[in-house]
Specification:
Shape: globular
Largest sheet: 6 strands, antiparallel
Strand content: 35-45%
Order of helices and strands: EHHEEEEEH
Radius of gyration: 11 Å
Distance between the termini: 31 Å
Oligomer: single chain
Number of domains: 1
Length: about 80
């Protein structure tokens, strides 16, 4: 599993747009989000699909399909207490 490249992230640009609206997150590099000074979320790609890794607690979510993208947004909001 490798870190997602720009071409991988192009497939989930609408999801990235949604994540950018969440208060408290800073996108330091495309697809790499921080909360304060700590890593919060980044993406990986492999032959099975595209995955988001959330921190605190660690969780990997398959965001290849729309239901996984919705699950990621729900998990991110919960961690941010939104």
């Amino acid at each position: 599993m490798r870190h997602a490249r720009d071409s991988d992230l192009d497939r989930v640009e609408a999801l990235l747009v949604q994540l950018r609206t969440l208060p408290g997150l800073i996108e330091k590099k495309r697809g790499v989000f921080y909360r304060k000074s700590r890593s919060f979320l980044h993406f990986h790609e492999d032959r099975k699909g595209l995955f988001a890794d959330l921190s605190d607690p660690d969780e990997r979510i398959d965001v290849t399909e729309p239901q996984g993208r919705a699950a990621l947004m729900a998990a991110a909001r919960a961690r941010l207490n939104l």
